[in-house]
Amino acid sequence: MARTIIENIVIAQYKDQTFFEFCKYTTIRFFEIVYIEKGEGSIKINGNTVNYTSNSVFVFVPDDIYILNPDAETTTTAIKFLKSFFRGDAPQNENLPVNDWFRKIEGILNSESHQLREMQFEIESDKVHLISLIKMVAAENDKKKSYDVFIIQNSLSVILHLIARNIQFLNADITTKVVESSKIQQIINFIHANIYNSELLTTKSLAEEFHMADNYMSEYFKKHTDVSLKKYIINYKLKLVETRLKYTDLQFSEIAMELGFTDSSHLNKTFQSYKGMTIGNFKASITQ
């Protein structure tokens, strides 16, 4: 049974099913969390097949198409954020921390590790907490008219945070020369986590954070990534710009301010320098 509690967020629950109808929300879904409480079988995702078992958690991003093929009775809960949720189309969502939620999700959209689809967790307790929160949201969904929106909003916020934190843990966003280099991955993760705070991403601040000399910080980063620290930070910011242009209705000036550019002109010049087109042309190309 699918039900919308918060405008443009759909919660669907299926108990002891051996057949799942194709998800009718696929074409308008932005982001989806699927928790398989019990059962076993396989999921066909974009033509590829992976197995699932009880207590599996999957995440799906825009344009993913999936079909569940159970080998045994399967119970699932799906939380679907529709594309319109992040476009400001619903006045009922004005008081929700929509932009904060988008920030959590965007890290997943820009991560190579989301291609795994099934969530892996750095520590088991994160998975336990995530599952408990999904069950809480599902329980409120079952209450029909007596549900508590406050509980659902806060639960969803923590759910997204837990997913984002563990996607960050798995993130292999760039190819490092030293595959098992925990220090360089820690630096990359720190940059991603603090991309909205430019003061923390100066060479001096990063050197202090990771106990390096200022002049060695840039050298170390370039050695292990083949790209300069400054260029990596700008490239990552521009990935986030692209994500906002694709999935939100934010003005160019709002995007510029949020990501630490002086103004929309500064953002446009930087974007054109790195991407070979203006932000206006990029926006037009994805809306055609």
From TrEMBL:
The keyword Ubl conjugation does not apply. The keyword Acyltransferase does not apply. Residues 185-285 form the HTH araC/xylS-type domain. SUPFAM superfamilies: Homeodomain-like, Regulatory protein AraC. Keywords: DNA-binding, Transcription, Transcription regulation. Signal peptide: none annotated. GO terms for molecular function: DNA-binding transcription factor activity; sequence-specific DNA binding. Transmembrane segments: none annotated. It holds the Pfam family HTH_18. InterPro entries: AraC-bd, Homeodomain-like_sf, HTH-like, HTH_AraC. PANTHER family: ARAC-FAMILY TRANSCRIPTIONAL REGULATOR, HTH-TYPE TRANSCRIPTIONAL REGULATOR EXSA. This is AraC-like DNA-binding protein. It comes from Maribacter vaceletii. The lineage of its organism: Bacteria, Pseudomonadati, Bacteroidota, Flavobacteriia, Flavobacteriales.
